[in-house]
Structure formats: structure tokens, C-alpha cells
Design goal:
The protein is α/β, with parallel strands linked by helices. The protein has one domain. It is 46% helix and 15% strand. The chain contains 8 helices and 7 strands; from the N terminus they run ααββαβαβαβαβαβα. A 7-stranded mixed sheet has the order 1-7-6-2-5-3-4, sandwiched between helices. Helix 1 packs antiparallel against helix 2, helix 1 packs across helix 4 and helix 2 crosses helix 3. The longest helix has 26 residues. The chain is globular and about 50 Å long. The two termini are 18 Å apart.
């Protein structure tokens, strides 16, 4: 019962914040990621309080908003939006399915905040979208957050990576910065007031200097191995509810 109340309050909070955010974005710097940063700064603490989740941030000094990069984060569930809001990445956009636009309030805010919508059904559309991402990084000096698993793991470990994030980083000549999130399913119980702990850890970056398109697969494997090992370690260190 408590979890249902929390989900309702969470939904109401995000609806109100994003409705206001969409209105502001319409008239003030539309399609600029500054709206994502301020939404995370305002809504992130509200969401954490509603859910009763304690977020522990590790190695956040590795974040550098003064240069572009490709952030890669493990993908567990719809609650990843709550986790991402705790990181407060500046000048950073994300990738999302084109269908997101049609979600009331959230979709319009997502689009107006400069995030990139892609069609995943056709390979040609995906390629064009990734070229848009590369141009956004190089011409606008922005970073991008990608979940390279492409689908939710639902707490079953780190899934196989798709190559898009790594090809994009190589083409743009920017580093890969991995972000590991501890397991939501094992460590959070929303039926408790204090629901549990989630750890967010920024890992050392992977340089793409001197790499070509043919190196994307090897780079993906290296990043996957590192993130998988760190995910196992961080899950063992989380305080159990």
C-alpha cells in the first residue's frame, strides 16, 4: 500500500514540475539542456524524499562539465529517471524513443529540453540519429547520456552493450565516462518509509584518442567488463533494508 502512495506522489510531482518546465522551455531557451539540469536540481531531491531512498554519491569529482563526453549508465527500470536526476549532469542531453514525445507533459518537456528522439525500428534512422548526436557534441560542445544496454536489465546484471554510444564517442573524439548504479530491485523496498540505499559511482573515463570506427567493439567490451565488475562490488557494499 505504501509503495502505491509513493508512486502516486512521484507521478504527481513529476507532472507538476515538468508542466512548469515545459512552459518555461517554450519561452526561454527552447531545446537547451539547461532545462534538464534545473529539473534534476529541483525534482531530484523531491523524488528521493517521496520514495524514501538514500542516494550515496561516489567519485563525483570525476564529473567535468567544461568538456564534452559520452556518459554510459546501466539501465535497470523506469526508476532510472529518478537516479539520473540525482547526478545533475550539466550541458548534457539523452537519447529517447520518438514515441516519448506523445507522453502527456513528460514528452513535450523532454523534447523542448533538447533531448534527442530517435526511431529505433529502422537502422537507417538510427544511423541518422547518431550523426545528429555527434554533431550536437562537436558543434554545441554538449555531452550525452546513453544507456548502451538498450533495454532494462531488471536487476539481472549488466546486459550486452550496443555499439552506438562507443561509435559516437570515437567519431566525436570525446571520452567515455561510465556511471554505475547499484541494484534497485535487490536494495529498495518502497513499502518501507526508509526504502533503502542506492549508490551512484562515477568510474574513470576511457579515452578515444587515436581510435577508429573498427575499435568500437573492443572499447565496448572493455567498458562493459569494467562496469560489470564494479556493479558486483557496489552491490555487495550497499546497506540492506
Amino acid at each position: 500500500m505504501l509503495s502505491i502512495i509513493k508512486y502516486i506522489l512521484l507521478g504527481l510531482s513529476i507532472a507538476v514540475c515538468m508542466l512548469v518546465g515545459a512552459i518555461i522551455a517554450t519561452f526561454l531557451r527552447p531545446f537547451h539542456p539547461i532545462h534538464i539540469y534545473y529539473m534534476a536540481k529541483i525534482w531530484g531531491p523531491i523524488a528521493g524524499t517521496i520514495l524514501g531512498v538514500k542516494f550515496k554519491k561516489l567519485n563525483f569529482d570525476r564529473l567535468n562539465s567544461e568538456r564534452s563526453c559520452v556518459y554510459v549508465m546501466n539501465h535497470q527500470s523506469n526508476m532510472d529517471i529518478v537516479v539520473a536526476a540525482q547526478i545533475k549532469l550539466n550541458n548534457t542531453v539523452t537519447l529517447g524513443k520518438k514515441q516519448i514525445f506523445y507522453f502527456p507533459i513528460f514528452g513535450q518537456w523532454y523534447w523542448l529540453s533538447g533531448n534527442i528522439l530517435i526511431k529505433r525500428e529502422k537502422r537507417s534512422a538510427i544511423i541518422r540519429s547518431m550523426l545528429r548526436v555527434t554533431k550536437s557534441i562537436t558543434r554545441k560542445n554538449r555531452s550525452i547520456l546513453i544507456m548502451p544496454e538498450g533495454t532494462r536489465s531488471k536487476g539481472k546484471g549488466l546486459g550486452r552493450f550496443k555499439a552506438g554510444a562507443f561509435k559516437t564517442a570515437i567519431n566525436a573524439g570525446v571520452p567515455i565516462v561510465p556511471i554505475i548504479i547499484s541494484d534497485w530491485f535487490e536494495n529498495v523496498n518502497l513499502n518501507k518509509i526508509k526504502s533503502g540505499e542506492i549508490k551512484i559511482k562515477i568510474l574513470p573515463e576511457f579515452s578515444t584518442t587515436g581510435l577508429g570506427a573498427s575499435d568500437a567493439g573492443e572499447l565496448s567490451q572493455k567498458v562493459h567488463q569494467t562496469m560489470s565488475q564494479e556493479l558486483e562490488k557496489i552491490n555487495l557494499s550497499v546497506e540492506k533494508v
